[in-house]
Predict the structure.
Amino acid sequence: MSDVSYTPRVTGTGLKASVQRFGGHLAGMVMPNIGAFIAWGLITALFIEKGWTPNAKIAELVGPMITYLLPTLIGYTGGRIVHGQRGAVAGAVATIGVIVGSTVPMFLGAMIMGPLTAYIVKLWDGLVQDRVRPGFEMLVDNFSLGIISGAMAIPGLYFIGPVVDWFTKVAGNAVDWLVDNSLLPLASVLVEPAKVLFLNNAINHGVFTPLGVTDVQEKGKSILFMIESNPGPGLGLLLAFMFFGPKMMRGTTPAAIVIHFFGGIHEIYFPYVLMKPRLILGMMAGGAAGVATFMITGAGLVASPAPGSIFAYLAVTPKGGYFGVILGILISAAVSFAVNSALLGFGRLEKDEETEEEGAEAVTAADEPSANGTQPTTSNRATTEV
């Protein structure tokens, strides 16, 4: 089992740390399967009816991949994280239950059933460990795995799948209301804070991707793929840090920009926001500006850009749709840069903090006894304070 971590290590035990840790687990289920998302996205962009090279036969792959393959991979990976290969198999079997029990791509259900079923198998294995007679280990292991995973697929079919299906439809109705009232940019007020707590994968693949797939079937493209995945706000934030952030952080931003904007790993900029929480306002402003631009220009994508890099965006942009997509990314980056730069005081806040620290260090040094044990004189203190 891979030990690769897809999010920065979280320390602490508070609510924020718990949410970040939870988001990190969700990212761990999605990120290893990004290659499969890319394959689905490219096939969708190239071969659907409104794709670059329409091919009805090849386009038949799109539906099964988004409905069965991708959720099963997420459930498999979630189970593997919890309990190795046995957990992976159990997670995949249980995920089939939520897939069949719903009418939308069941990413969110897979994120629930995969780890949950694997955890139950883990509890069972701990219970029977060292209690199975020699020669019966394989029999017990295989039958217990089959019974538990098969049993968990049933509540997935009758309960978890329909509940997640209902939640997705409610979210879809809310999004439709925002679109009908030209208020979709307000979604950024909720999305951006959730993103920096590492809930981005749950939001994008659990909510917006299933809704976007429905949009594509009706309209040939969807703006919903771009609400969470837009790399513009993060680019603006990192540029603001590069020019006006703390000096010790400025050297880290060029590499972070490459990883974020070209590599599509948005998690790289989350610690920058968490370090200065007021910057979430700049992220909201940038996200809202981008969504507004996408709406005005009628921009949309034909598949979820996974990962959320500029290359993935261009790969799933429909013919004739580049102007609105690129403009939205640029405007969101510009607004994010401007607002975050202002929140950073255009570097003045950093200078003021450094001045205060230097003044405090000087006063402390003046108040400390000298090497020969004598105290600083009043005149020395006055000179230091001046």
